[in-house]
Amino acid sequence: MSLFADDASRRHPSFQAAPEGRFANLSEMVFASLLTLYGVTWLYEPLEFPLAWDENGVPTRAFRPDFYLPATATFIELTVLEQRLVTRKNRKVREFRSLYPEVSLQVVYRGDFLALATRHGLRADAILQRAA
Questions:
Q1: For residue 102, how far is the Cα from the chain centroid?
Q2: pLDDT digits (tens, 9 = 90+) for 24-68
Q3: pLDDT digit string (tens) for 91-123?
Q4: Whole-angstrom distance, CA of residue 20 vs CA of residue 127
Q5: What is the span of the domain harbouring residue 88?
Q6: Number of domains, the chain
Q7: FRET label pair with 28: which of 40, 100, 107, 113, CA 20 to 30 Å apart?
């Protein structure tokens, strides 16, 4: 199954140079490619933010946003899960925001990601199938 809506889309500029590194899923790789297409400098999962600690101060739970955009000092969390599974991630995001209110975090939800992919001629169904 092709990621592209048609054969001509194989020349899409976002895929001229695949982003380096390992990604948790295909949707993150596609998002990184689109950031690169628009000339946005990004880092993949550069920091982990502790959310809970044990009695010795050792982190027991943490949150690692998917991307960091240095030009705007913004973290991006890409969430392509089905809506019924998003509740847990939203809880982590709320915890993160309460512990680190000075840190900018934007969440890109499934619908927004699918609209972005579709606008670029990418087959959203293929991306999500491979992301699962």
A1: 20
A2: 888 898 899 899 988 999 999 999 999 999 999 999 999 999 999
A3: 999 999 999 999 999 999 988 998 988 888 887
A4: 18
A5: 7-131
A6: 1
A7: 100
Query: What is the C-alpha to C-alpha distance for residues 19 and 25, in angstroms, rounded to an integer?
Result: 13
Q: Which residues of 31-41 are buried (b: 16+ CB within 10 A; e: fewer)?
A: bbbbbbeeeee
Q: Is 112 exposed, middle or buried (0-12, 13-18, 19+ CB in 10 A)?
A: middle
Q: Is residue 2 part of a domain?
A: no
What 3 state SS string does the chain have? CCCECCHHHHHCHHHCCCCCCCCCCHHHHHHHHHHHHCCCCCEECCCCEEEEECCCCCEEEEECCCEEECCCCEEEEEECCCHHHHHHHHHHHHHHHHHCCCCEEEEEEHHHHHHHHHHCCECHHHHHHHHC
Structure tokens at 30: 């596609």
What values do phi and psi take at 43, rounded to 5?
-125, 140
Q: How many CB atoms lie within 10 A of CB 96?
A: 20
Asked whether residue 84 is domain-assigned, the answer is yes
